Hints:
- It contains 9 helices and no strands.
- With 173 residues, it is mainly alpha-helical.
- It has a single domain, classed as Alpha/alpha barrel (Mitochondrial carrier fold).
- Keywords: Membrane, Mitochondrion, Mitochondrion inner membrane, Repeat, Transmembrane, Transmembrane helix, Transport.
- One of its GO terms (biological process) is mitochondrial phosphate ion transmembrane transport.
Amino acid sequence: EYSCEYGSLKFYALCGVGGVLSCGLTHTAVVPLDLVKCRMQVDPQKYKSIFNGFSVTVKEDGVRGLAKGWAPTFIGYSLQGLCKFGFYEVFKILYGNMLGEENAYLWRTSLYLAASASAEFFADIALAPMEAAKVRIQTQPGYANTLREAVPKMFGEEGIWAFYKGVAPLWMR
């Protein structure tokens, strides 16, 4: 079977899987670049440029150091993609049904924008905890090297708020 009914659970699941693949894999693939960018933002004296940032990171942490934060990146952006792509379709159909077929067509651009914003609201809530852990791992030397180290430490120091204080900036983005 190569297709599915529009608006069916399988349809939403396939949209979600597409989001996991497109967001989770692509963001994980660029972790080394993201790591250097974050470090340049936090310590511009030490990480003077992209190429210098790669050089300093490899010198201090080895080639494996360029992968720091890959697990929270993969998990977080996979969840974000799942929600973004899946909920977009849910909200598009929901809002379209609320407007009626003719109005949904006439107001389709606004409908798509509203569905996208609604999906992003939930997608960012899904992303925020892993993004918080990723940033700590990548930018605070000695804090934690893995997701398994970072999560309990963050929770112990700040509670659940440690994982969601970045949600508002994500929404503003």
